[in-house]
Amino acid sequence: MNILPHLPILIIALPLLGAFILPLLNRINKKVPGIFSVLILGASLFFTILVAIKVMTVGPQVYVFGAQSTGFTLPSGLKFPIRIIFEIDAMSIFMGLITAMVSFLGAVYSLTFIQKEEGLDKYYALLLLLTVGMFGMELTGDIFNFFVFLEIASIASVALISFQALYKGEPAEAGFKYMVVSSISALIVLFAVGIFYGQYDVLNLAALARLIKYSQLDKIALGLMVPVLAMKAGAVPMHMWTPDAYSEAPAPITMILVAASQASLYALFRVTFTLYNIQLNTLTVGWVIIIFGLLSMFIGVTMAIIQKDIKRLMAYHAISQTGYMLLGVGVGLAVLADPVALQKYGITAMEGGIFHIMNHAMYKGLLFLTAGALFYRTGTRDLNHMGGLAHSMKYTTIFFIIGAAAIAGLPPFNGFASKLLIYESVYRFNPILSIIAMVVSILTLASFVKVFHSAFLGPKLPRYKEVKEVPTSMVFAMAVLSGIIIFFGLFPDVIIKNLVHPAAMSLIEQVKYSATILGGM
């Protein structure tokens, strides 16, 4: 049997099957769930890379569940897509690559990081389910199934955030807060799905994009989905769940939660570009997204500066960095109806925002893993109780420097490449926005200089005289992310040409997305 045509479903089916097998494997040996999860997610990563190569060389791929065609002919002769469909274009596989890489490295890092915890089979099963939810959100071509996968990811996230709640109260509080936010957001998304289905009798994104009339109900649905998806992405002023969830979840889970937030950000872009496109008032909606971005950048970085909990500080920086993505893509949306401005700087702004999604996942994931390494050896997240750790944790120190330089936008690291695209293009749209973005980067650098000084410099504290470097699996995960950060920073043109530009164009070219599924219908 040739499995190549079925790679899109195998990307999801493997971790989904693995999640249900894990409790049985746990009875064999307590170490088996972790190793099994790494193998499963490694296979998903490999399959995702194969699908990405096919998408970039051949074009968008459509996988139809239970049928050989995307349409079904009714007795009346009417044809429309009614089956579940995965529509994998350059943007969706771009996000899929982020999910695959982050989940795999999160599982590798977890092998040692949580090996002393109870319920490891549940932990790894939930990690696999979270990965399934993220993949589904990014690959599906059906808006109702997006809701289903959103719920899967949210439920798994709540449990993983609360994983250590048996002996600490803060994870339970953070998990409860995330549960409330996720429940409300999911209900609103479902309500918007009902609006679409009630008007057009279809749930397929391509079919909806062809049929949508931008009616009053469509405007209501848009008004519901934009803030809700921005909230799930952790954008200000709907960011209330982010600092608690990111700081209380285990470090590898925090890294994956960042990618999960970006899956919601992807959904926001997919709705505004693919579903509505130029039928909406792109200038107005673009400015709404830009304002979300500005608020996220400024409030996130100013709140980070005053934090003494290293993970909470990094959580606020995650909010701030989300603002760059919203700013870049928001400018692209604002000029979408102006072909001249779109060609001059709109596409470049979108490339910067989209490139920053992947860059952020890499360097923010690395920073959260370094924070986890510090906690693993010191037992504290309080910067006031750290100091001199560079003497005994040399690899972690180097990895932290790489991540800090990347998030601050210093060359030759990946954050510089995507931020430079945003600075230059946004300046042509509105110079003040670009200046604000650069000021935020300066404040980000100042914040991480403070962290570096507090945690790594100075004399080694007596209570940490026995501290040593973290185990190999944790070092490996951080080393891989560091390598990606440096490679993307040194060769940004390769990534932009082969991954980022096609992803940006797949959002802009709404007609091509619909034609891939519906053809000439």
What share of the residues lie within helices?
Answer: over 70%
Largest sheet: 2 strands, antiparallel
The proportion of strand residues reads under 5%
SSE pattern, N- to C-terminal: HHEEEEHHHHHHHHHHHHHHHHH
- Report the structural category: mainly alpha
Mean pLDDT across residues: 89
Rg over alpha carbons = 22 Å
For the biggest β-sheet, the strand order reads: 1-4
In DSSP terms, counting alpha (H) and pi (I) runs of 4 or more, how many helices?
A: 19
Question: Unreliable runs, pLDDT <50, ≥5 residues?
Answer: 74-78
**Straight-line distance between termini:** 32 Å
Shape call: globular
Key phrases:
single chain; 521 residues; mainly alpha
Could you characterize the architecture of this molecule?
By secondary structure, this protein is mainly α. The chain has a domain at 281-490. The chain has helices at 7-25, 32-57, 90-113, 120-139, 143-161, 169-200, 205-211, 216-232, 242-248, 251-276, 282-305, 310-334, 339-378, 394-407, 414-429, 431-455, 472-490, 492-508, 510-518; strands at 61-64, 72-73, 79-80, 85-88. Strands 1-4 form a two-stranded antiparallel sheet. A two-stranded antiparallel ribbon has the order 2-3. The radius of gyration is 22 Å and the shape is globular.
